[in-house]
Amino acid sequence: MTEQTTEAAAGQTALRSTEQSASGTLPEPPTAPPPPATDPALTAPPPPARRDRPRLRALLRWTAAVAVFAVAGAGTAYGITSLDRTDVPGLATASDGRWDYPPVVKPPLPPGRPAVDDTTNTAGAHYADLRALVLPAPHGVREDTALRGTGGWLATKDFLAVYARPQDRGKFGQQLTDHGLRHVAARGWRAADGTRTRIYLLQFDTAAVVQHLYDSGLSQSGGPGYELAGVDRSVFDNAFPTASRVDGVDRVAYTEAKPYGAEQVRQAYLRAGDVLALVVQSRKGSAPAVPFQQTVTLQSELLG
């Protein structure tokens, strides 16, 4: 019964649509439903404009600037550390008085011969040419060619002339003979400031002979056993740095005590194996300590 009613209603609707079409009248389009009401409380205002963008841009600019300065600073630091101190403006230091010596290189040994500090070298002998063991003169000085002697060997009497008293020259000369002095090699020069340097190397047969000679009068704590010419009184040089000692080389240094005469004299004796060395520096007024210490230390390195 219900199905028949529904079908009848559908038929009537279709019949009316057919009649409207036949009469040329189109059905009215359906009306769109009104928009749903909007709650004002649920409507969010538009987002505000971002005000931190200028701050962000400034931060980025500062970060870039810091990075540039960091790279530049690192480059500058590398450049400074790669230079010598005297090459950097504002950091250059005045000379401390050291002389400009050429590189100190030990002369070659004859084939099969040991070095002086070799354990097999029981005599403590220097097998290299003694003349090559004398410290070379620094740059910018005037060399004293008279100290080279004949063929590079200085006569014993010329060496003994450095001592003041005739009795000392006689006594020490006899000791040199008794201890078997073989030969003397020497070198000397005068620097631009007037400092005069003399170096004497005396070679004997064994290190034991040199030690006996060194201990028997040359290395006294109160002063040298034989005073040099032009010196009133020499005293132990307490200012000579002990850290400059060279292994295998004994050293005793003296300086002329005040008041000294027209010039001051510094001297040092070195004992290294079969070689006894005397280093003397003098200058009118006063003899500077730094070049004297430098010269003695470099000569010790050549002998050690």
In short:
The chain has 304 residues and is of the alpha+beta class. It contains six helices and seven strands, in the order H-H-E-H-H-E-E-H-E-E-E-E-H. Strand 6 (263-272) and strand 7 form a beta hairpin.
Relevant terms:
7-stranded antiparallel β-sheet, 7 strands, alpha+beta, 304 residues, single chain, 32% helix, disordered N terminus, Protein Transport Mog1p, Chain A, globular, 6 helices
Describe the model.
With 304 residues, the protein is α+β, with helices and mostly antiparallel strands. The protein has six helices and seven strands, in the order ααβααββαββββα. A seven-stranded antiparallel β-sheet has the order 1-2-3-7-6-5-4, sandwiched between helices. The protein starts with a helix and ends with a helix. The N terminus is likely disordered.
Mean pLDDT: 80
Helix vs. strand class: alpha+beta
Q: Rg to the nearest angstrom?
A: 51 Å
Number of strands: 7
Please indicate the percent range of residues in DSSP E strands (runs of 2 or more): 15-25%
Strand order of the largest sheet: 1-2-3-7-6-5-4
| General form | globular
- How many helices in DSSP terms? 6
The profile of the biggest β sheet is: 7 strands, antiparallel
Give the topology, please:
Blueprint: H1 2-23, H2 53-81, E1 142-143, H3 156-160, H4 166-178, E2 183-190, E3 196-203, H5 207-218, E4 234-236, E5 250-256, E6 263-272, E7 275-284, H6 289-303
